[in-house]
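Students often ask why inverse folding is considered easier than folding. One informal answer: many sequences map to the same fold, so there is more than one right answer. In these notes we will look at a single instance of the problem. The structure comes first.
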């Protein structure tokens, strides 16, 4: 099987600025005999209403550029559903729902265990596709900290298993909890449960400007 590259969008829509940019990169990779795959993020960002929605017309949009993929049977992962994702966000990120310290701790444990289960499935998918490059778009968007944590776990496990170098480009067009302070969508600072960029030997971070690099500790920025 040829080497593969997987693009993961956290936008959860069929076409966006992110996927348009991804097409440009995929065309370049194709010239080097690298097959490109795209996960549109339907099972990541649930507010678009596409959770567990089967790909249909979307396949035609990216014909000959991407093969659309996602974690198989993700709805079979215990507790990974819209209700739990929204509840964890409302308690841990936006603070719209108040719970006791004990319940919050139990929720954090559940999020960690669920992230580990998802990470195993992500690694299985990458193994199946012979992935050698991972491009993450807007991964620190704290809409779904479960999936973000899973992605970090999968990167570490896969990189170690295959002796990889920097095989991940993690691009953040904005760190949303930092930019939308007035609407308080992500709660008050210091956003304790939002997943911050994690230092990793496998990840090259790219941001839009030096401000984001300095404020959230990114290791590489691009103007």
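Output (designed amino acids):
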């Amino acid at each position: 099987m040829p080497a593969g590259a997987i693009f993961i969008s956290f936008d959860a829509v069929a076409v966006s600025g992110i996927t348009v940019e991804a097409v440009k990169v995929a065309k370049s990779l194709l010239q080097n005999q690298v097959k490109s795959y795209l996960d549109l993020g339907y099972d990541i960002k649930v507010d678009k209403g596409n959770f567990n929605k089967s790909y249909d017309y979307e396949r035609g949009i990216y014909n000959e550029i991407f093969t659309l993929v996602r974690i198989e049977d993700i709805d079979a992962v215990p507790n990974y559903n819209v209700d739990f994702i929204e509840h964890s966000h409302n308690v841990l990120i936006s603070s719209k729902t108040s719970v006791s310290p004990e319940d919050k701790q139990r929720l954090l444990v559940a999020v960690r265990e669920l992230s580990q289960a998802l990470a195993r499935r992500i690694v299985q998918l990458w193994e199946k596709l012979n992935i050698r490059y991972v491009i993450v778009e807007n991964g620190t968007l704290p809409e779904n900290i479960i999936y973000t944590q899973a992605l970090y776990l999968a990167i570490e496990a896969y990189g170690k298993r295959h002796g990889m170098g920097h095989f991940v480009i993690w691009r953040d067009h904005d760190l949303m909890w930092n930019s939308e302070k007035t609407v308080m969508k992500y709660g008050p600072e210091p956003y304790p449960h939002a997943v911050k960029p994690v230092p990793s030997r496998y990840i090259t971070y790219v941001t839009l400007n030096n401000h984001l690099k300095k404020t959230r500790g990114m290791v590489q920025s691009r103007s």
